[in-house]
């Protein structure tokens, strides 16, 4: 019964975060900015103000699929944010440009996260193979290898947090400082960015909890040996 409750909680955390993001975004996607700029214009304005003329802004399919690609130096905005003139769209566009500014400045946590990508991918894909073998065969060394590999993915999730929070901080500074939103709209933009950050916090929390559970299982198996 305890395992069922545990897995329900683990499943509900990211679902709750996603619902919070969608409800907050949908609410403020209906609130236009006084500047009347769409997301593409917001992104372009901030990029140019920071000397990032080489960074492109392109439309991207999907809902809240916005992201910055450091390899191609491109800000991808979902269609609703690319064309929309809302507080939510301005906040999201500015956030992604925040990553481009981090890239330009050589922001340490961002570079560290990029270096972790291949290791985190390997760790996330291979960890459960060793964990399952270790648990079924009661071999602590196999389980330990799986935990170490899992740790690479957990580290990536934890490093992502300061990267995302810093990008949001830069975003607010830019859209307020450039007059893209006024002081009364800043509170709503902050709500959008804080809600989006919940998805990363939830992912990190679930990853840490799962790793702690594996460590506890490893301790119990080692004690029985």
TrEMBL record:
Q: Which UniProt keywords apply?
A: Membrane, Transmembrane, Transmembrane helix
Where would you find the membrane-spanning parts of this chain?
A: 142-161, 197-218
| Pfam families hit by this protein | Zn_peptidase_2 (PF04298)
What superkingdom heads the lineage? Bacteria
From the Swiss-Prot or TrEMBL record, give the protein name: Zinc metallopeptidase
């Amino acid at each position: 019964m305890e395992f069922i409750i545990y897995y329900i909680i683990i499943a509900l955390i990211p679902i709750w975060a996603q619902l919070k993001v969608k409800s907050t975004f949908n609410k403020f996607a209906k609130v236009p900015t006084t500047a009347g700029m769409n997301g593409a214009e917001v992104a372009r304005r901030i990029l140019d103000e920071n000397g990032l003329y080489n960074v492109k802004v392109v439309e991207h399919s999907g809902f809240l699929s916005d992201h910055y690609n450091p390899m191609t130096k491109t800000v991808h905005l979902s269609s609703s944010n690319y064309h929309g003139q809302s507080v939510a769209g301005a906040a999201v566009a500015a956030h992604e440009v925040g990553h481009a500014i981090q890239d330009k400045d050589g922001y340490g946590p961002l570079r560290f996260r990029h270096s972790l990508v291949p290791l985190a991918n390997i760790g996330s894909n291979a960890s459960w193979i060793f964990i399952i073998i270790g648990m079924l065969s009661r071999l602590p060394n196999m389980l330990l290898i799986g935990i170490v590999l899992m740790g690479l993915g957990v580290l990536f999730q934890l490093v992502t947090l300061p990267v995302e929070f810093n990008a949001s901080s830069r975003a607010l500074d830019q859209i307020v400082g450039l007059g893209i939103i006024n002081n009364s709209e800043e509170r709503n933009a902050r709500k959008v960015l804080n809600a989006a950050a919940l998805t990363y916090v939830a992912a990190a929390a679930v990853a840490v909890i799962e790793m702690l559970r594996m460590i506890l299982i490893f301790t119990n198996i080692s004690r029985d040996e």
